[in-house]
Write the structure tokens for this entry.
Amino acid sequence: MIKVAYKENYSHSLWENHPFPMEKYELLWRQILYQGIIEKDQYFEPKAISEEDILLCHSSEYWNKLNQLQLSDKEVKKIGFPLSRDLVNRELDITGGTLELSLWALENACGLNIAGGTHHAFSDHGEGYCLLNDHAIAIRALQNRRLIKRALIVDLDVHQGNGSAEIFANDASVFTLSIHGERNYPTKKEKSDLDIALADGIEDAEYMDVLHNTLPKLIETEKPDIIFYLAGADVLAGDRFGRLALSMQGAYQRDEYVLSICQKLNIPVVVTMGGGYSKSLARIIDAHSQTFYLASQLFD
């Protein structure tokens, strides 16, 4: 059975009219309940991540400034959200949810966070709507608890996971894969263990060829104890911040392929939603909903 993390503050109204569609989280939650994809006993409200776990991944200087709301105007601008106590608390809950789901997945195969995938957060600063790197913190926490040795990040958001790449640079215990748009944010890319930069306008067949030729070999070589999958919906054609051209069916095939491999090989997987900036909010919700549907079918 899958487990799902969601809390009301995922969709805080502080950011109305912001390019990032914050309301998508509440709408997604309502959609997967309405469609019967999950039952209420499959979800939990996450607890805030601990400072101890945060400091496994982020510098104390950055964390203290963030927690005390003392980031400079330049640092806040880089993040892209107005800094507030509510925003920090939201990030703590999202990150706590990803860690709790990873503990669940180790015993029960699969957990999904309705938010998360904050892959632009570096060890010493935040950017790109990301304050704390939830995948990185969860991995470090699992390693610190001696529950895993090796982890694989499969980042299929349209934007490179630059923060994750920086945090795990020169760390052989964590492999970072990022398949992203070559001309997308960030302008200055970090070096993941494997970066595959895609040309503008790539459609379903070519995208899936890349995935087929990459993921099985990588899993066979790395033999991860757990996979963190960032299932960004910003790969869809028409996304305001993406430059790829996957159809809804293509996004479905992508998720099905990744999750099926995890299921067949009995590799625990944690799934986070990442980006999605289509002009149609319904299109974003539909894309994310099918990720939950696939997980519910594969890990029933």
Q: What stands out?
A: The CA atoms of residues 13 and 129 lie 15 Å apart. The longest strand covers residues 174-181.
